[in-house]
Each structure stands twice: as C-alpha cells, then as structure tokens.
Amino acid sequence: MAKGEKRTFVPGRVGVVGLGLMGGSFAKAAHQGGQEVYAWNRTRSTLELAMIDTIDGELTEEVVGTCELIILAGYPQVSVDWMRDMEGLISPGALVIDTVGVKRVICDKCFEIAAQHDWTFVGCHPMAGTQYSGYAHSRANMFHGAPMVVVAPDDADDFERADVLERLKALLAPCGFGSFTLASADFHDQQIAYTSQLAHVVSNAYVKSPAAQMHKGFSAGSYKDLTRVARLNAPMWTELFLDNADYLSREIGTIIDNLKAYKDALDSHDAQRLEELLAEGDRLKKEAEKR
C-alpha cells in the first residue's frame, strides 16, 4: 500500500510501538481482553518472544493502517520519530496515543503532525509502573485501578474532548484504569515534576550516602519506601528529566530550601523550630490526602 492511500481500520485492533514495561503491559492487557494486538520493537528477540503468547503479529507498514488504536510506548524521541515515519499510513479515524512521562515535548510535535491528517493524537500518561524495566516485567494487570492522565488536542472543543475520552475508555477497557483525568500538557508536566520525577531524584540521591552500603540489619519500611525508585533506567530518565528540566529544577530547588531549614534547626539545636517544621509537614500531608 502506498502512502496517502485510503485506509479502513479493523475495529478494536491495537498496534503497540515498543514492548518495554509499558508497551508490554498494554499488549498483554489488550490480548487478555480479546483484542487483536500487533507490535513493533527495536529488539527482534523481544518481539519474537511476545509473538509466542501475547501479540498476533508484527506491526508492519501493511498492518499500521488496520489498527484503530496505536500506542506509542517508546522513549519520547523514538515515539515522535515513529509517528513521523508512519503518519501517512495511519487510518482515518484512528486514535494514536503515547505513554511518555512528559507531555509538552511530545504533544507539541505530535499534535502538529496529526493536524495534517484525519486521525487523532491524544497525549496519555498511565500513572503506574515498577522500578524494573523491560518486557519481562510487564504484566496484564499493571494498570488495574491506576489513573490515566489524558491531554486532548488543543483545538478540540468540549464535545470533541468528551467523545475522544469515551472512545479511549472503551478501547482501553481491558487495562482496567481506575480513572481518566483531562489535563493540559503544561499542567501535567508541572505536577509530574513533583509527584514522579522529584521522587526518583531524591531516591537516587539518598542511596549515595556511605551509610547505604551498611544498611542491612538497620533498615525496615522507611528505607524500602524511600529507595524503591532509586533503581531506574538511567538513559530513559535522563531524557525525561531534560524534557521537563524547568519544572523539575524548580521542585529540586524547593526541596533543597526545605531541607536546609531542617538542617539549620538541627545545627542550632533549636527544638522549637524543628518541632514546628515536623508538625508543618505532618499537617500538609494530611491536607493533601483530603483533596
């Protein structure tokens, strides 16, 4: 089929680009839910492994146009590059989503590409995962009960946003998401700098203390909770951090200021100030949980 030729998708058919933790989990959930799943992956051995029990075949140029839903589950630049290469092959009416942890850098580019065609791109971020990466750690229930953040096209009106959201919910029903939240790309990146990226930075920095090498026998839940995401995919998180450098740097600056206040109180043996700081953190945590 030549680029530009009219295509008709097969209802419910899913194409997954990238079979890492996220892509593999989407593929397994869709397969378990009875959907046809085709996939592309840079490493051939992973694709062949998935063909054994999860996917129905390879997401070739001939298959792209038959998919109603295409999920871009690679690194930000890989996802954008694949979309540029295949933009003329995607079927009119199809939905294309991504799973990237930052939204401005990918939505700006992908909305511009999609605007030239009769298919729709929707920015998505499934709020689920583990400290491990790769297809071997993916699972069909990865997203059960998890929130999904959705960034609709900037030029869409309220009716179009509602229509896209309902269609997306139906296509992703096998994933079992607990909620779908509409947001702008900018607000998403502000929030994710705090809720996810800062947590990874703090955890990764925390284990650089010499004391970490001697923690056995002296650590319990607190240590495990704070160090869980110190293990990470460094190349991927480097790209994500740099794509959101402005908001992440601001959050790091805020936590540095807050930590300095605790350090100053300790250095001066100011019990009253230290207690105030601790009580303030306890109060703010409780307030945040009520929202």
TrEMBL record:
InterPro entries: 6-PGluconate_DH-like_C_sf, NAD(P)-bd_dom_sf, PDH_C, PDH_N, Preph/Arog_dehydrog, Prephen_DH. Gene3D superfamilies: 6-phosphogluconate dehydrogenase C-terminal like domain (1.10.3660.10), NAD(P)-binding Rossmann-like Domain (3.40.50.720). Keywords: Oxidoreductase. Residues 12-291 form the Prephenate/arogenate dehydrogenase domain. Belongs to the prephenate/arogenate dehydrogenase family. This is Prephenate dehydrogenase.
